[in-house]
Amino acid sequence: MLAGVQYHAPLSLEAIADAGFSYAEIPYEVIEGEGLPTYEKKEGENRLLRVSGFLYPLHKLTPEKLYEILEACKAYQGNYIVLETMNCEPGIFEEVVEECYGMIEDFGIPIFLENGCQGDDASGYVHNEYSDVTGLIRIANFYNRLCDRPMVGICYNIGYGNLLAKNIRSQLYQCREYLCMVHANDNGGRYNDKQMPYTFTKGRGDLVTDWYHIIGELIRMDFQGWMIFDTTGLFARCPKKLQTSFMRIQSALVREWESQYTFAERVLGKPDKKLILFGAGQMLVDYMQEFGKKYPPYFAVDNGQARWGTEYMGVPIKNPKEILQVPEEDRNVVICCMYYDAIGAQLREMGVEYEEFHDRYYV
Amino acid sequence: MIDVGVQTKGILPEMGLEEGVAFIAAAGFERVDFNLDTFLKNSDIYTGRINSFFDADLDVMLAYFGEYKRTFEAYGIKPSQMHAPYPIFVPNRPDVTDYMQKVVIPKSIAIAGQMEIPWVVMHPFKLQYKFGLDVERAMNLQYFQSLIPLLKEHHVGVCVENLYEGVGGRITEGTCADPEEAIWYVGMLNALAGEELFGICLDTGHMELVRREPSEYVRQVGSRLKIMHLHENDALGDLHQMPYTFGSKPEDGVDWETFRTALEEIGFDGTLSFETFPCMNSFPRGARGEVLRTIKAIGEEMVG
């Protein structure tokens, strides 16, 4: 996936770069206003912070404005234009694109239509023409037929989906063939907070937004498009000094998600090693359903003595001490139980290296 | 000088002692709020499912937590406060109440003393909605007064915390939510003790839930404020999340800038301790280290 962050004052481009991001998405209104702020590279810094693309509200779009944005996008070497549909009346996109599809094709810069809704924090949010992916697919499909190659895709904004109580995982699945971008942000379902993913919870850390299944769905469809954090609410609230710290959490999220993308090949795809799963409870069931056929375990172990000597789906379940009977160079131990910390400590005590299987992405 | 700390809940004992303490130290913390309450969870106490952890002989428990003390010291960490198991009073369960008051709390004080933890947070009894304010105050006063000899013996102080309650399906003010009440408790108890053995723990998240500004509370309680539980929420649920992660405008949520000013005004020189353990559950495991480092950075920014 191509990861970046949406720029919006007071967020600094330096904070985006310091956290390790290579792309910044720019609202075109910034260019129209005072222009893109200068990004000051630190001494010895090799990394480039590039413009991923431009963002513009669809309700203000005209053919002339679209031409202007396409020109700017080309000049800044941007990769796309995303059109926001929040509080947008139907028909504008159709009018503009019908007139401009030849121009879009000539520039070779794709347009991503974002899901949106109608309303505000005070009055609440309701659906508009662009809230359901079925509607977005219909529009994208129609205009892609006008062009020789597909030029209209979908940007799915997770925060907006949340405001309308969508099953976001299903929305992503439905538009998978058109999905080019995800705008990642979080809220509690009431206000358009545009906060960092994973921050809205109930009780003691139970997520309000279905992040694990959302990422799991992206993994399943092997989504390789843009993942842009539009967490402007967070940066409107936090002091400037903390921008880089919060940005680093978002960077850590990208690394976590990317590691899940490669989990199967990186962790399970070791045919020269014996796969041993630690845990023979529900997560073993989940593992077998998701990966059991392709990557069958050699055996599983469990701390529950009652399970020793039994089998599940042909997998023998043994005492954890049995791990040590397999030579270190031949074994591939994966924790398959929610008590990662405790089992990790137990394995370290035994001198056993391990990886972790997280069924929350798959089940 | 103000320090920055974080609670051990969500990290210890789950990660293993050495690994967990190293994890906290790697994020830059030199202070922790030691969550003794993780060894006897409040959800279990409310339902009367009391485990046997506090049945152990005190000597055995002191030896066990001596290992914690040594490990903290090895990583340059000093616990600035402890959270005792709670509730101390369970309505309709005199057996559980008796066990909490006569076994769990005295042992908690002894453990704090051995670990050289100066302040222990104890939730006052929550009785005002059932029996009235006078009964609640009288019973709290009586119980906390009974602890004074033990506190003196172990050189430990107790902090009462501003609490909320759930009444009629919504959150309402609880004991010490009003700073005047917290001041009253601390004043009465310290007068009875003849020394400063009681102080106030300000929970910023609980303040938000009952529509109060933590900075106002700080100004009112002044030097009685000894320790803190810093966190933020959506003003609807006690979510214990990081500051700044709710709302979308500078004026949303807790006004941390004014809070910092208020702390300066009263000359607070304790620990800014974050009670943000759900972050350890809600973020993916791979991002937890960065989350903890950010919490430290938030504290440092508040210290200025």
Outline the fold blueprint:
The complex is a heterodimer of chains A (363) and B (304).
Chain A: E1 2-6, H1 13-18, E2 23-27, H2 28-32, E3 50-57, H3 63-75, E4 81-84, H4 92-107, E5 111-114, E6 118-120, E7 124-126, H5 133-146, E8 152-157, H6 158-163, H7 168-174, E9 179-184, E10 201-202, E11 206-207, H8 211-220, E12 226-229, H9 232-237, H10 243-261, H11 263-268, E13 274-278, H12 282-291, E14 299-301, E15 311-312, E16 315-318, E17 331-335, H13 340-350, E18 355-356
Parallel strand pairs in A: 1-2, 1-12, 2-3, 3-4, 4-5, 5-8, 8-9, 9-12, 13-14, 13-17, 14-16, 17-18
Antiparallel strand pairs in A: 6-7, 10-11, 15-16
Chain B: E1 3-7, H1 17-26, E2 31-35, H2 42-46, H3 58-74, E3 78-83, H4 94-114, E4 119-122, H5 128-131, H6 133-146, H7 148-154, E5 157-161, E6 164-167, E7 170-173, H8 179-193, E8 198-203, H9 204-209, H10 214-221, E9 225-229, H11 256-266, E10 271-274, H12 278-282, H13 288-303
Parallel strand pairs in B: 1-2, 1-10, 2-3, 3-4, 4-5, 5-8, 8-9
Antiparallel strand pairs in B: 6-7
